[in-house]
Structure formats: C-alpha cells, structure tokens
Amino acid sequence: MNSLLQIAKAPLVVVERDGQWAAALRLALGERRLKPGDFGGATLLDVVRITELRSMDDLWPALREQPTGTIALEVTMANVKQFAKALLRLEREFSSAIAFAVAARGLAAYSGMIREAGAVCVTDSPRCLADVCELVALRIAKQADLRGASNNDADQIFSSLPWTELVNRENGMDHEGAKTRNKSK
Question: pLDDT-derived band of residue 42, with 50, 70 and 90 as boundaries?
Fold first, then answer.
C-alpha cells in the first residue's frame, strides 16, 4: 500500500462563520479520486481530516497540535484586517502551515492582494474548488513523501555527495563506506 494511505489523515482546518465552505470542500474532495493503481480508488476526502472552526482565535491552539496543516481562511469585508493579521502570524509562527482564502464574492477583485498577503490560493465560489483540491492533493503527497523517506534514502543521498569519498578515507573506510583493514600488522 502506498505511503499516502498509510499516513494519518492530513489536517485541513476550515475557519469560517457558517460551515458553507467546509461542506463544499467535503463534496469537492470526495469527488476527487486519487490514482486508482496506486491508491485503490480512494478520494482526497479519504485522506483528509477536516476540522471546522468558527473563529480565527480558535486556529492557534489547533495549529499547535498540527503545525504543518493546510488552512482555509474565510475572508470577508468585515474580517479583512483580522485575515491579514492571521496570514502574517501564520508566516511567523507556523511557517510549515499553508493557507488559502475562501472569499466572499465581493472580494474576487482583490484576489491578487490576498495572495500577496500570503494566501497560496484564492477562491470565491464553493463550486470552483478544483485549484483548492489540487493544492490539497499536492500538500498531502509532499507530506507523504517526507514521512516515507527512509534512512536508506538519506544514506543514498549522502553517498552521492562529492565529499563522501574524502570523509570515508579520513574515517578509514573504502569508497563504498566499508571499514578498511589495518594492513600494518
């Protein structure tokens, strides 16, 4: 079984007032199938754990538990200042987390500024979540790759570095990393 399905469900935190975006994300993620050969026909929803929060203040304790999460932040005319502050705080305190904006329709014209503030993606329609699904899929795949990297992978990378032979010689090893025998007997 692929490492993507072996990992714990990836966190997706949705911070919004009413649950509309979380419901739309569940539908969109449930429709997005992963590669059948590799993942047995699972959907993105099968590998994502959605947590709904109603306040940005609730986000910070949730991120302390899952600092590498993916966050959907609702941005409206009423909370645009709080939204910008949240993105700044995410960048400073939770740099492994990423955030995308789910915006009120009236804010679609400001998507460039929202991205500039730190959102990796902006959508203003619950019916247009293809980019968000792609973002979530890429994020999950990246986290699975990082968790699935073995010590053998690290050893293979280290052995391909140009200075490995020099280090091995200094430590009394041959070019493949095996200890050389002491010939001075």
Answer: confident
